[in-house]
Amino acid sequence: MNNRFVNPLPGVPDVESPFFDQLFAAKEASAEVLSIASQLRDNGYAIIDFPDAEFDARAERIKTKFSPTFDFDHWRVELWHKNDSLRVQDAWESDADVRAIATSPAVLKLLSDIYGRRAIPFQTLNFPVGTQQPIHNDSIHFSSVPERFMCGVWVALEDVDGTNGALEYYPGSHKFPTYANEHMGVCSATQYKPTGHYPQYLDLWRQLIAAAGIDAKTFHAKKGQALIWAANLLHGGSKQTDPTRTRWSQVTHYYFENCVYYTPVFSDPAFGRTYYRQIKDALTGFIQPNVYSGVEVDHAVIERSMPNAFERYVKPAPPADFDPAGYLRLNPDVSAAGVDPAEHYLEFGRNEGRRWS
């Protein structure tokens, strides 16, 4: 008699499957893998020591190479106050150490074992200071079909404490449903700015946390410690209270094989608009195909669905009798700001009921 377990839900990550116990028993997962998977299942994150004997040397080379590219004085004088950060995106394409961290064989194997599909590193972000990001999840930016086949790995390139921008996250928030534009009552295709509704998501996530009564956790990492988080985990970067310090870190975002990759915040599926991602596998350097239930999505389908650089989004025009000079005269705050009157009216004025004549 064959007792081998056959997964009835292959479109759900193993780590979030209702058949978690059977799946990990069938693959004879090691105690370490099972422990990390259990933490991800229960809390939405797991903390590990980054598995690379050369990590310290890599971290120092990354800091030395990229430090001159940042204007730290400008950040401390202006951007820090605005909760902005500094970053280099996709340095894996030009830097061997960034790529080595992103494509760590041990990390790729661990993630593949946990999710049940091959892990694909597709984006890196290197930060010299704290991100100071508001609480958010990655699902609205990096989603997949089937959903939740995405995760992130953040690793400290130096010690992090309460003054140089520790990570902040909400355990268990990954179990919330994945909410998208249709749940928010938003059709991004009809907006002047396709991301103009993003503040609604920030407010939603705050309210979900309050309703669930979840307390924030902070990660004061030692150099070489890493945090793996699930796509739907609510997380962010706490305020860096000491702007004289650095907080070097690297984030790698991972998708998984045999999925469709897209950005929900730009997408309206009911209108046939899906903002597909054409991701490049950092391990191979090749573009990863979008695959739906084992079938590659035809390029013509992607072309029809993509709002090419947002050109297909409806951009409203001001009223035919719109008087730019009159608008500035009647709205001295707009005039003082030195902005284009028509642009201001379309983005703000029409919703605020401002007059133009």
Automatic annotation (TrEMBL):
Protein's UniProt keywords contain Repeat: no
Keywords of this entry: Dioxygenase, Oxidoreductase
Source organism per UniProt: Paraburkholderia kirstenboschensis
Pfam families for this protein: PhyH (PF05721)
GO molecular function, one term: dioxygenase activity
Protein's name in the database: Phytanoyl-CoA dioxygenase family protein
InterPro entries membership: Phytyl_CoA_dOase-like
Organism domain of life: Bacteria
